[in-house]
Design a protein that fits this description.
Distance between the termini: 58 Å
Shape: globular
Radius of gyration: 22 Å
Oligomer: single chain
Helix content: 40-55%
Order of helices and strands: EHEHHEHEHEH
Length: 197
């Protein structure tokens, strides 16, 4: 898969967090990359992989421009509530080894299709660590709004300042003012006072 100038075609592995609202945005990115001629491998947990592939017709499967791959996550098929949380905590340990094996197998199988980039959901920091350890370029993908990302990144500072507790709950039962200039504008013509919240 060399280009006309002799360089190899980029090969990107994408790894979503296996939850609602995380898989679809990364899948859209995968299709976008593939439409630009980039080789894409989309890595899911076995349970999410089964849901995606079972929803695809054979025709769509045959024409799919991305390679869909599953790795075990260590979860049982129907764990109880207590086992479920334990499985969630242990999943990165299990998936880390499988991701490294997958990358090694891809790189061994074809010299022209070596993995050149790993893009993982921001929640999967372990996947970026695996890629960096293997000298592969990385990128973190944020599937939700920037406001949520800012809150997530600043939560430790809010905890240190005593505004929220360790669990993210507000410590004081009062309104928190975002800014003295903040107004929520409504579309009510002719009455400026009632147009502001």
């Amino acid at each position: 898969m060399s280009n006309s100038n002799g360089t190899t075609k980029p090969h990107v592995i994408l790894i979503p967090y296996p939850a609602q609202g995380h898989v679809a945005p990364l899948m859209k990115l995968a299709y976008n990359l593939a439409s630009h001629g980039i080789k894409v491998t989309f890595v899911n947990t076995e349970s999410i992989h089964m849901k995606i592939t079972s929803a695809m017709s054979q025709e769509i499967t045959d024409q799919c421009p991305i390679n869909l791959v599953a790795v075990p996550d260590g979860w049982e098929s129907n764990p109880g509530e207590e086992e479920k949380w334990e499985s969630i905590e242990n999943a990165p340990k299990c998936m880390r080894a499988h991701l490294q094996n997958l990358i090694e197998n891809i790189n061994r199988a074809n010299n022209d299709a070596h993995v050149t980039y790993v893009i993982a959901d921001i929640v999967h920091g372990w996947a970026l660590e695996v890629a960096k350890k293997m000298c592969i370029k990385t990128g973190a993908f944020v599937p939700y709004g920037l406001g949520n990302l800012a809150l997530m990144l600043h939560a430790p500072k809010l905890d240190e300042a005593g505004i929220i507790d360790f669990y993210g709950k507000h410590k004081y039962w009062s309104l928190t003012k975002i800014s003295h200039l903040f107004f929520l504008c409504w579309s009510i013509c002719s009455n400026t006072r009632s147009s502001q919240f």
